[in-house]
Amino acid sequence: DEEGERRMLEYYKGTDLLKADILAIGHHGSRYSTSIDFLNEVSPKYGVIQVGKNNYGHPHVKTIEKCEEKCIILLRNDIHGAIGFSLEEDYIEYCTMF
């Protein structure tokens, strides 16, 4: 949740250790996961939301909007099925299987 992210931001302040090209969006994309400060620090190219059919409203529209504002390519299990990545030194390719 955002509190856990805040703690990580404090702990790793002044480093680049939170930078990542691929980010697993927290708690199935719930409203209180993946804060804008955390997205700014991690600066991912891709965000993966592990979610299926549910009664909780996951992923939340606000979380999706935050990712879209940062131009993060969102991949979701409920839409794309299984998601795989092929990582090369300067290139990332993804595939989906639904």
List the helices and strands and how they pair.
Blueprint: H1 2-11, E1 22-24, H2 36-42, E2 46-49, H3 61-69, E3 73-76, H4 77-80, E4 82-88, E5 91-97
What can you tell me about this protein's structure?
This protein has about 100 residues and is of the alpha/beta class. The chain contains four helices and five strands, in the order αβαβαβαββ. It has a three-stranded parallel sheet with strand order 1-2-3. β4 (about 80-90) and β5 form a beta hairpin. The longest helix has 10 residues, at about 1-10. It starts with a helix and ends with a strand. The mean pLDDT is about 95.
Question: Residue ranges: pLDDT <50 for 5 or more in a row?
Answer: none
Overall form: globular
SS elements, strand count: 5
Main sheet summary? 3 strands, parallel
Which strand-content bin applies to the residues? 25-35%
> What radius of gyration results from the CA coordinates?
14 Å
Decide which structural class fits the backbone: alpha/beta
Amino- and carboxy-terminal Cα gap: 29 Å
Order of helices and strands: HEHEHEHEE
What is the tally of helical segments? 4
Estimated helix fraction: 25-40%
Strand order of the largest sheet: 1-2-3
**Average of pLDDT:** 95
